[in-house]
Amino acid sequence: MADEAEVHLKFSSKLQAEVEKPLLNFRENFKKDMKKYDHHIADLRKQLVSRYAAVEKARKALTERQKDLEMKTQQLEIKLSNKTEEEIKKARRKSTQAGDDLMRCVDLYNQAQSKWFEEMVTTSLELERLEVERVEMIRQHLCQYTQLRHETDMFNQSTVEPVDQLLQKVDPAKDRELWVKEHKTGNIRPVDMEI
Fold first, then answer.
1. What is the pLDDT of residue 53?
2. Which of 46, 122, 153, 190 is most deeply buried (CB count within 10 A of its CB)?
3. Where are the alpha helices (DSSP H) in the chain?
4. Using N-to-C axis directions, what is the helix angle for 2-15 and 82-152, rounded to 10°?
5. Quick one: CA torsion of 118, 122, 128, 129, rounded to 10 degrees?
6. Where is coiled-coil annotated (predicted)?
7. What is the dihedral of CA 95, 97, 99, 100, to 10 degrees?
8. Which residues are within 8 A (CB) of 164 and not within 5 positions of it... i.e. 6 or more apart?
9. What end-to-end distance do the CA atoms of the chain give, in Å?
10. Handedness of CA 154, 156, 159, 162 (dihedral sign)
11. So what's the pLDDT on residue 1?
12. How many other C-beta atoms lie within 10 A of the C-beta of residue 69?
């Protein structure tokens, strides 16, 4: 009885040191990595939304400036005066400035969209790599667990053998493929904006 208790005590300490602790450490690091990627992508998404809002604001300003210019041009046709000509020149400058602002905003949006896309691709590839690493890590530690069970409990190996067989069939690359399909990485993304 004492021998059996000692065997189980050794099994318990080996299990904690060789399986449980490494898995818990890996899980914590994995959570940190996921949180970091999530924050990074969220920041890029916010920047993209902000750039889009700036484009819409610039587009609206350009429309208003063009209407103002058109109205002042019509006033000039009705009556000629130096004041109206000055107002038209001023309206043209404002319209040109609004057009330049719109072009700049569209440019900034397209840059943000391009960066967002590049980061999404890079992050998706990194997440896929982490998923392969995670599956392999879990498989290795479960194999370590079954190995410890074999060493500890020679009489009940028949209960562990099916688990061993299933662990040998685990394929991290296949799991990555399932992960990509499940999370639909790369399906939807913003497109470049035209002026």
1. 92
2. 190
3. 2-15, 21-78, 82-152, 157-168, 172-183
4. 160
5. 170
6. 27-86
7. 170
8. 143, 146
9. 83
10. positive
11. 66
12. 20
Taking the C-alpha atoms of residue 126 and residue 163, their distance in angstroms, rounded to an integer, is: 30
In the DSSP assignment, the letter for residue 155 is G
CA separation for the pair 177, 182 (Å, rounded): 9
Classify the C-alpha dihedral 144-149-150-151 as positive or negative: positive
Sign of torsion over alpha carbons 127, 131, 137, 138:
positive
Phi-psi domain of 184 (left: phi exceeds 0; alpha: psi -120 through 50; beta: other): left
| Among 163, 169, 178, 190, residue whose Cα is nearest residue 55 | 190
Contact 58, 101 (CB under 8 A): yes
Report whether pLDDT(145) > 80: yes
**pLDDT tens digit string along 51-87?**
999 999 998 998 998 898 888 877 777 776 667 778 8
Residue with tokens 């449980």: 20
Q: Is the dihedral of CA 80, 81, 85, 87 positive or negative?
A: negative
74-120 residue pLDDT tens:
777 777 666 777 888 888 898 899 989 999 999 999 999 888 888 88
> Dihedrals φ, ψ of 190, to 5°?
-65, 155
